[in-house]
Cytochrome b
Amino acid sequence: MDASTKTQALPVWDVFTRLFHWGLVGAIGFAWWSGEEGGMWMSWHMIAGYAVVSLVLFRLIWGFTGSPYSRFKDFLRSPGFTLSYLKQVLSGKAPTYTGHNPLGGWMVLALILLCAVQGITGLFATDDIFTEGPLTSMVSGDTASFLTSVHKINFNILLTAVGLHLLGVVYHQRFKREPLVQGMIHGRKPVSDVHSHPALAPFMRGAVVAVIAIALFGTLYWIG
């Protein structure tokens, strides 16, 4: 998008995508804090984990059925295309994308998958003393121990990915003057006139997917 092109603020991120984003931020943040606190907070830590798993399920389904800019096919590009975009970034000539740019798109997928691993392994994790996931009894002690180790190691990888994601946001917000944070709050972004069609959310479809995710949360909470 050329900087001289007239722009207008149009809806890009639908309400379901925004609720997912901030819900996941809250769930991961609270899970981190409660896990560090331990003790009586571990029951809340597990509830936050159920929320993470449920939110990930929602986003995976929404990535195929959601509004245009929330779909994986809109922002997952080939490795070659992504590398070319990286070269443009380094040269200071990278174009602006209405939705996620190629690097941001792969980071979104990486974060979703890391959150999935974190949440799912937590369902089988155990501290061998007071706390264990709702599905720990379904696997052997060795398997539970292995998944607990993965749960701990993966969280450090997840934190690293989150840090890289935040650096990318700062870069676009500060240096490219793209209001990414604001856009994820109210859903609008300044876009070129050639992208004059707003990304309307299929509300009923979103409601159905949300019910599926809520049902999973309820099931995990009941089992736990």
Remarks:
- The chain has one domain: 13-156+200-223.
- The CA atoms of residues 175 and 215 lie 42 Å apart.
- The first helix runs from residue 15 to 37.
- Residues 13-156+200-223 form one domain.
